[in-house]
Amino acid sequence: MTAPAIVARDVAKLYRRYAHRNQFRTLKSALLTGSVLSDLRPEETFTALEGVSFEVPRGATFGVIGENGSGKSTLLKLVAGITRPTRGSLSVDGRVSALIELGAGFHPEISGRENVSINGIMLGLTRREVERRFDAIVDFAELREFIDAPVKTYSSGMYMRLGFAVAIHVDPEVLLIDEVLAVGDEAFTRKCLDKIAEFHRRGKTILFVTHSLGLVEKMCDDVLWLRHGRTADRGDPKRVVDAYLTYVAAGEEALLQAQPATTAALATTPDEPAPQAAPGEPAPATGYRPGRWGGREIEIRAVRLLDARGRERRVFVPGETVTLALSVRAREPVTDFVFGVGLYSADGSCVYGTNTDIEGFVPRRAEGEAEVRLALEGLSLVEGTYLLDLAAHRRDGTPYDYLRGLHSFRVKSRVKDVGLYRPLHRWSFSGGADITPPEPRGELDLGEETGA
Amino acid sequence: MIAAIRALLRFRALVRSLVSRELKARYRGSVLGFLWSFVNPLLVLLTYTLVFTVILPNRQEDIQPYFLFLFCGILPWTWFQASLAESSGVIIASGNLIKKVLFPAEVLPAVTVLANLAHFLLGLPILLAFLLWKGRLAWTAVLLPLPILVQLVLTLGLALFLSALTVHFRDIQNILTHVLHLWFFATPVIYSYAAIPEGSPLRQALRLNPMTHVMVTYQQVLFHGNVDHWRGLFLAFLVGVLAFAAGAFLFDRLRDTLPEEV
After folding, report:
1. Residues spanned by CATH 2.70.50.60 within chain A?
2. Which of A12, A278, B18, B77 has CB 3.0 to 4.6 Å from A259, enough for a Cys bridge?
3. A270/A238 Cα distance (integer angstroms)
């Protein structure tokens, strides 16, 4: 409980890129110019990690999160000793076992039994230690009846179970886990998690790289968030995970904002159905095709999605007030008009639809520029992407301007409930049901971080 | 070089279990299984004997019976050639290990060389049986460990060198097949070194090949029963040590790049 198990000080890892490769340099020319070794010097480098420092106290569980390509796995390989840091120092105290790829090094032709002993030795056990742990390994993997069959006959699940079983029975002081739990069936994942929890109870140090933020919040004492190879944040799991989620949501926001169906482009869109949904969107089910049609007697010139403070956004959390603001223009005065809004889920099912006619508004006159606003109060939607139908038409349905699926927004939620919509709801328990409520945490506050 | 030897000794348990895995895995699933270690050299011998006693008969007096002379050379050559051919690709083939597990990479070429040494040693009793049958087995056979040792050092050095360099220059794997083919004919396996006139340019060229001296020693120890090639063998040993040092040096230089380039 004194000296930290892992100490990283200002660690940087540069990967080399060999420029000569691209020029089709061969051994022959390298030999002819006598530059075999100098050719192996990097021409360009790619910074996978830069200035990362942290300490993991003995017995702690340390989580590393970040997007793909943020350097998580590189960090894990450095801690495992598979590669060395380019700069800085990294020291690990105690035997390390890395669950980076389960069953790496299994030979398909030989039996599970022989693979267990060889794999155990590869991971640093002596032959005797492997023998002593053999039964425990086989029992954990639940492969007793297949242990003498060649590994090539195993299913991928069996293969992984055996790999995990060996790696975990190396009984390391420091356990490194890289997203290995993402694969495998429910029961086995649970078993692995139990085993990891047991490790934790026994005071072992665990370094944990994962995309499963729930797991991070539940298991880790301390979390490091990597962004483009640098430390973006570090500390209390809940706080760091929130910050990370907010960042990810902001990224999605930017992506949606950058979509081609922007309000500016809209004004000149010809009357043709768009061939497909905007990039980045899941393709809606057949029957719901984005497009635009109508005679444009009334034209929808711009569409904005506003939050409660009037700022334009594309990502919202449940419970927020979202206002759809349509800028319209009537070419000449019109007396028969209806404004309508439809809300569709990403697979094309209608979540909600309404218009001014249904709700009993009586049109009198539209002329020149106007703005139409519809406020959706207390957004009652589950996480997902939603597409909008926005229309101006006659009461008999003849369209003036109909925009189908050209605008979308996204709902981000901490709660992963499912369905088409989320009614306002509350749980209560009485009598013999003893149940701990979740900590009140509220939704992500996107408004603070992502506003203009 | 000392460090490389120390590393190999430190990981000897791993090396041993990987070698035995190689041996087990190689013939797993075949009908003859382990017998292939015996059948393989016999079949190679049969082919060459057919070629050089029927098609292109070799009637040199000092190397009769020719098939036996041939056998003395083919067996160690097979070890040499298979070791190098396999070790050039061994790190790439085990990329998963190098990238995903903390694994001493130098173990891989060493395992290749040693597994092939095991095959060689398994074939040896057949050769000795043939020698006994033809009444050629002499006391000099006890000196056999010497050329084996020299060849081991040389092969290990070349294997280290090739395995690391091939990761960066994959062309080597293709070139190597042909180099080894040429090397085979540049080594007195199918012909007798003694029959080449002293001082001729060909002989000068052959002398530069360390495998020549190893091979001549094998043939003297096993076939001729009198050994006088000590100087050559010693030079080959020095070349072997040099090759080992160079191989270990290069391997060490490239070690950190291996997980990234595989």
Report:
1. 261-411
2. A278
3. 48
Q: Any chain A CB within 8 A of the CB of B21?
A: yes
Give ∠ CA B235-B122-B150 in degrees, rounded to 5.
10
Sign, CA dihedral A347-A351-A356-A357, equals positive
Q: How many CA atoms lie within 13 A of A207 on its CB side?
A: 32
Which stretches of chain A sit within 8 Å of chain B by CB? Answer: 15-16, 26-28, 30, 36-37, 40, 77, 80-84, 96, 98, 100-101, 104-105, 107, 109-110, 114, 117-118, 121-124, 126-127, 150
CA angle A52, B261, A50 (to 5 degrees): 10
Identify the residue whose tokens are 């050329």: B147
Q: CA torsion A378→A379→A380→A384, rounded to 10°?
A: -160
Tokens of A269: 């869109």
What number is the ipTM of this complex? Answer: 0.76
Domain that holds residue B85: 2-261
Fold of domain A261-411:
Coagulation Factor XIII; Chain A, domain 1 (2.70.50)
Q: Report how far residue A20's alpha carbon sits from residue B51's, in angstroms, rounded to the nearest whole number.
A: 46
B54: which residues sit within 8 A by CB, 6+ positions away?
Answer: none
Which residue of A26, A82, A152, A179 to mutate against B (max B Cβ within 10 Å)? A82
Three-state DSSP at A393 gives: strand
Q: CA-CA distances (angstroms) from residue B37 to A100, A127, B121, B155? A: 37, 27, 9, 20
pLDDT tops 60 at residue A271: no
What pLDDT sits at residue B63?
A: 82
Say which CATH topology domain A6-250 has: Rossmann fold (3.40.50)
Please report which helix (H) or strand (E) contains residue A388, including its range: strand A384-393
**pLDDT tens digits, B70-107:** 889 999 999 999 999 999 999 988 887 888 777 788 89
Q: Give the count of domains, chain B.
A: 1
Q: What would the pLDDT profile of A122-171 be if each residue is shown by its tens digit?
A: 888 888 889 999 999 999 888 888 999 988 898 888 888 888 888 888 88
Q: How far is CA B246 from the centre of its chain?
A: 18
Contact, A19 vs A46, CB < 8 A? no
Residues 6+ apart with CB under 8 A from B12: none
The C-alpha atoms of residue A319 and residue A413 are separated, in whole angstroms, by 10
Residues of chain A with CATH 3.40.50.300: 6-250
Q: At A437, list the tokens.
A: 């409520």
Q: Quote the CA–CA distance of A179 and A182 in Å, as a whole number.
A: 6
Contact B13 A121 (CB under 8 A): yes
State CA A189 to chain mean position distance.
Answer: 19
Q: Are strands A291-293 and A322-334 parallel, antiparallel or unpaired?
A: unpaired
pTM: 0.69
Residue pair A213/A69 in contact (Cβ under 8 Å)? The answer is no
DSSP letter string over A325-345? Answer: EEEEEEEEEESS-EEEEEEEE
Q: What is the per-residue pLDDT across A74-124, written as a single tens digit (0 to 9) for each?
A: 898 889 888 888 888 998 888 888 887 777 778 888 888 988 988 888 888
Q: How far is CA A300 from CA A265, A277, A292, A372, B145, in A?
A: 12, 19, 10, 10, 92
The residues, any chain, with a CB within 8 Å of residue A59's CB and separated by 6 or more, are A1, A5, A200, A203, A204, A205
Q: With CB atoms and an 8 Å threshold, state whether B103 touches A127.
A: no
Q: How far apart are CA A355 and CA A361, in angstroms?
A: 9
